[in-house]
Amino acid sequence: MRFAIIKDSERELLNEVAEANKDENSLWKIPNLLIPIGAIILAFLCLISFSEKRTEILVYFNLILNGSLPLIAINQISGIGLHVFKFDRNKEKNLNINDTIVLRTKLWYYSLGILILGILLFAVQVINSPFLEFSTIIILLIISALLVYASSNISRKIFLLQEDFLDKTFDSVIRESSNEHGQSWGN
After folding, report:
1. What string of DSSP letters covers the chain?
2. Which residue in 89, 90, 133, 152 is deepest, having the highest Cβ count within 10 Å?
3. What are the domain boundaries of the chain?
4. How many other CB atoms are there within 10 angstroms of residue 111's CB atom?
């Protein structure tokens, strides 16, 4: 038995939407991953260039564990939340899309869990920083990285459920299908 947040049919829908909206889908990465990671890299460069503590290895770990990774996860989830329930059920039926409300509800609950965990992890990191024990640093880095991964995964799926993306995907599928039938009827 396989554990999955999203059923195979829901995964197929999301993959089809992602494929039909490749250009727009790739834009999601810029504000949600590249800019925040770029800010962390810039902070590293400033630390290397200007800090007297640049030779202390723990300073680099604590730079990451200052709440920035949980904030990336919180930003991803909070920035995409409006797409969860903004849809037209009748339009989805007209486009022959199975009802997405169950998928949207699951994603909403998972995003709420990620948001709460992100806020708690942010608070722990800000209140207890700097961390001096290497084992604590490793555990917090792993949890923070997993949180960003989960947030990226869920928020990208929510991003794909935008009404415009669904319209573009299934309008083109319907057009391709009718063109195929038109060609076979004409022969």
Report:
1. ----SS-HHHHHHHHHHHHHTHHHHHHTHIIIIIHHHHHHHHHHHHHHHH-TTTT-HHHHHHHHTTTHHHHHHHHHHHHHGGGSS---HHHHHHTTPPP-HHHHHHHHHHHHHHHHHHHHHHHHHHHHPSP--HHHHHHHHHHHHHHHHHHHHHHHHHHHT-HHHHHHHHHHHHHHHHHHHHHHHH-
2. 152
3. 8-21+28-176
4. 23
The residue among 146, 147, 108 whose CA lies nearest residue 5 is: 108
Task: Tell me the one-letter amino acid at 165.
Answer: F
Residue with tokens 């994603």: 107
Instruction: Quote the CA–CA distance of 43 and 73 in Å, as a whole number.
Output: 18
pTM: 0.83
What confidence tens digit (pLDDT) does each residue in 101-150 have?
Answer: 888 889 999 999 999 999 999 999 999 999 999 999 999 999 999 999 99
